[in-house]
Design brief:
CATH class of the largest domain: Mainly Alpha
Strand order of the largest sheet: 2-1-3-5-4
CATH architecture of the largest domain: Orthogonal Bundle
Radius of gyration: 17 Å
InterPro entries: Ribosomal_uS4, Ribosomal_uS4_bac-type, Ribosomal_uS4_CS, Ribosomal_uS4_N, S4_RNA-bd, S4_RNA-bd_sf
Function: One of the primary rRNA binding proteins, it binds directly to 16S rRNA where it nucleates assembly of the body of the 30S subunit. With S5 and S12 plays an important role in translational accuracy.
Strand content: 5-15%
Organism: Muricoccus pecuniae
Family: Belongs to the universal ribosomal protein uS4 family.
GO biological process, one term: ribosomal small subunit biogenesis
Shape: globular
Amino acid sequence: MTKRAESKYKINRRLGVNLWGRAKSPIAKREYGPGQHGQRRKNKPTDFGIQLMAKQKLKGYYGNIGEKQFRKYYDEAVRRKGDTSENLIELLERRLDCVIYRMKFAVTPFASRQFVNHGHITVNGKRVNIPSYLVRDGDVIEVKEKSKGLTAVLDAAQSGERDVPEYIQVDHRQMKGSFVRAPKLSDVPYPVQMEPNLVVEFYSR
C-alpha cells in the first residue's frame, strides 16, 4: 500500500472533518487528531494555518493529490480567464478519477484512482489509464465490458451515500455516462465546506 493510500485513514482526523461524508469515517469515533499528541489542546489557528488547512482539505478530498501536481492545477487556474478559485475547482472536477467517483463507479476517490489505473475505463471508446486525464465537455466515459460485473463497481453504483451531480449524466445499467459541463463551486456536492479562495490566498502570498 502506498503512503498516499495508507494516509487516507488519517486525513479526516488530522483535518477534523468527515471529508467524504462516509459513515465509516474514523472521525465519528475519535474527533481528535492521529498520533500520541492528537489530543493536545489546539491553539487558535493563524491566517496562514487557515489557508493551509483549506489547501489540505481540497488536496485530500481528491485522493490526496501530491503538492507538485496540485500546484500545477493552481498555476493553470491562474492562467485561465475568470475567477481563479472557480477555475481550480473545474480542473479538479475534470480529472478522470474524480468523474468516475462522481458517476458512482467507485466508492471512494482512492478506489476510483485505482480503478482507472488498472485500465477498467474508456473515454470516447478508447482505454485511458491516467487518473489525472482531464475530461472535456461531452466526453463519454464507460466501464469496460469485462469490468461491468465487478462487485466493487456494482456496490458503488447502488450505494446511497451520495447522489450523482447535475453536471454528470450516467446510466448505471450500461455503466456508461458523460461529462455534461464544467461545474461551479456551488454545484459540487462537497460533504464539507471547501474554500478554494483561501487556497488562492495561500499560493499568492
